[in-house]
Amino acid sequence: VQLQASGGGLVQPGESLRLACLASGSALDLYTIRWFRQAPGKVREGVACISFDNHTEYADSVKGRFAISRDNAKDTVYLQMNSLKPEGTAIYYCYFYHNGTNYWGQGTQVTVSS
To answer: Cα 32 to the chain's mean position, in Å?
Structure first.
């Protein structure tokens, strides 16, 4: 199974981006998918997750601004990020766990700067 994250880029504060996490080699519909981010010099932190039955959870720092969703037909999980802040600058990773194995995407860079 491989996860490929995409959609990152350079935006100004207050703007939006939508990240996508595409799975190849396995359907994602049975798994809880998580987005993490890692800012320079900081530990990796959880941002949002979505369960197989579409229950969602968010870090306090992104509640009300980010939305996670899934399209099982496309084996893709999205992270809609609105009202981005400079502290949102990080590499964003998608992840899931199955049968003792951690699956990480390669990460996509998000830079929020004026």
So the answer is: 12
Kindly give the pairing relationship between strand 66-71 and strand 76-81: antiparallel
Rg of the chain (C-alpha set):
13
Per-residue pLDDT of the chain (114 residues; tens, 9 = 90+): 889 999 999 999 999 999 999 988 777 888 999 999 999 999 999 999 999 999 999 999 999 999 999 998 999 999 999 999 999 999 999 999 988 999 999 999 999 999
Residue 17 tokens, joined:
């981006």
If you count them, how many residues does the chain have? 114
To the nearest 10°, report the CA torsion of 57, 62, 65, 66.
-50
Cα 45 from Cα 59, distance rounded (Å): 9
In the chain, the amino acid numbered 6 is S
